[in-house]
Amino acid sequence: MTSTQEATPGNLSSLTGLRAVGMLFVFVAHGAAASVFADKGVAAGYNTLIDNGALGFLAVSFFFVLSGFVLTWSARPGARRFWRRRLVRVFPNHLVVLVISALIFLAAGETIRLVPALANVFLVQNWWPDADLMYYQLNGPTWTLSVELFCYAAFPVLFMLVNRIRPQRLWFWWVGVGVLALAMPLLSEPFLAGYGPSKVFGVGSWPQQWFLYFFPVVRSLEFVLGMILCRIVQTGRWVRVPVVVSALCVLAVYVALYFLPQNFVFAALYPIPVALLVGSVATADLAGRARVMNSRFMVKLGDLSFAFYIVHIPVLFSVHAAFAGEWVGYANHYTRTQWSVPTGIAFLVGVYLLCVLAAWVLRTAVEIPAMRRWGGRRTRGTPDLPRPKTSGPQLQA
């Protein structure tokens, strides 16, 4: 087998490879919080490069859009089967890492806070604007899983509604959902601005930030945008946009964020350009034009993206805390060790590779066995997810 897989009908391996890029963006964004560089100018430059976390915000939006696209593309009959597979995919990895994180916090001398811990266990921490539910998570990145679970729960209904959109109206609905996401900061301003900040972000109005960044209903707009995008591709109505052009659109939006108010940085501007990128990569793959993202290396790395996302914060900050002879506590509290630029870069690269290794172990030892054991097969009597009428290829998942 060659290092590059030829795209076959229904095989969107480039989107899997693109996950690896999103995974890297998340790590680089969170790496800045470790403060590994002793040179204050370099540290400031690092924060400027990631736009004080906007790179991570961009990656999160990408994963929400991609999730809606892929789940629509690979949908099969059986709502209960779908829910079962989604829960089995999420919870084993989540719970294993959560237990490890709790043990690390206990070793650091922390007292586990019961309410935030239970909310974190059941992934419902996003549903109430209580900053403590975010600040005292056992594994911070799992807030995105709270959004995903809501999208999974609503998916059969959303799938039915999206399939009812006439093909000639798909672009209209796609633009409408994208504009609605873009308008959220403005729509929330009269009601949620003016409140005090929280210890989560430290500036701005916490209720408004919660609404724009964490509230599952608002973030589900990105998921729905991905679903409609999938139908556009399936029905052959995609207007060819070169991958390079769509990538430049994402870059242009990212640069624009340096000059926009904070409330637009959380999520509002990303969905449309990110969706264009997903559509461009998907159609390039189907046409056999993809060459980099569907390489065996990128696909293998992309397969680890979920496990990587779950483990990267505990690994990153636990390893860094170990250099100070400490355990990491709530809100990644520990004494930061700082180094020269070459040593700091070497540390981040080394921890990234360690996170990849930990993700491989988690996927191999937990995720795959759990899916095989409890993922279930299609059974009679399960309610069907309606299938779209399309001449486009279907991804078997």
Automatic annotation (TrEMBL):
Residues passing through the membrane, by range: 12-33, 53-74, 95-123, 143-163, 170-188, 210-229, 241-260, 266-286, 306-324, 344-362
Record-linked Pfam families: Acyl_transf_3
Residue ranges of every copy of the Acyltransferase domain listed in the record: 14-360
Protein name per the record: Peptidoglycan/LPS O-acetylase OafA/YrhL
GO molecular function, one term: acyltransferase activity, transferring groups other than amino-acyl groups
Keywords: Membrane, Transmembrane, Transmembrane helix
Keyword Transmembrane helix included in the entry's annotation: yes
Lineage: Bacteria, Bacillati, Actinomycetota, Actinomycetes, Streptosporangiales
Organism of provenance: Streptosporangium saharense
Chain intervals for the UniProt region annotation (Disordered): 377-397
